[in-house]
Amino acid sequence: MRAVRVLVLASLATAALPLLMFLLFAYGPRWESGFERRYHRIQEGMTVDEVRQVIGFDGAVQTSVPGLWRGGGGTNPFVTGATVVLWEKDGEQIWVGFDHDRVVSKYYHDLNYL
After folding, report:
1. Residue 24 contacts by C-beta under 8 Å, 6 or more apart in sequence?
2. From CA 60, how far away is CA 83, in angstroms rounded?
3. Of 35, 31, 37, 43, which is closest to residue 89 (Cα–Cα)?
4. 80 and 45 in one domain?
5. How many domains does the chain have?
6. Pick from 1, 106, 109, 110: which is nearest to 54 by CA?
7. 41, 94: one domain
8. Taking the model in full, what pTM does it have?
């Protein structure tokens, strides 16, 4: 009887290990990329040139900004401002909203992460 218990436990552990590993890699802790660290250096009130220096290259001015935040009975913009600039690199995005040439909002999105 004891041998049967050991076999059952071993089978359960073997079956659960791949699921546990998937959950750990998909939803567990992750390390920030260099691009994300640049995002964290962007502060409210910075000028477009200061943001460009932090990121290291020019972004694309967006004429319409899609909403990613779903809830509250509708779609809300995830970044606001009179001008919105998007920087993209290797599947990562930094959206920055400017009013009067100063940062008023920002958003980071990693398309590579679940």
Report:
1. none
2. 11
3. 35
4. yes
5. 2
6. 106
7. yes
8. 0.68
Task: List beta partners, residue 84.
Answer: 62, 97
Strands 83-89 and 102-110: what pairing?
unpaired
Contact 96, 80 (CB under 8 A): no
**Three-state SS sequence of the chain:** CHHHHHHHHHHHHHHHHHHHHHHHHHHCCCCCCHHHHHHHHCCCCCEHHHHHHHHCCCCEEECCCCCCEEECCEEECCCCCCEEEEEEECCEEEEEEEECCEEEEEEEEECCCC
Residues 86 and 105 reside in one and the same domain: yes
**pLDDT tens-digit series, residues 48-76:** 999 999 999 999 888 766 554 444 444 45
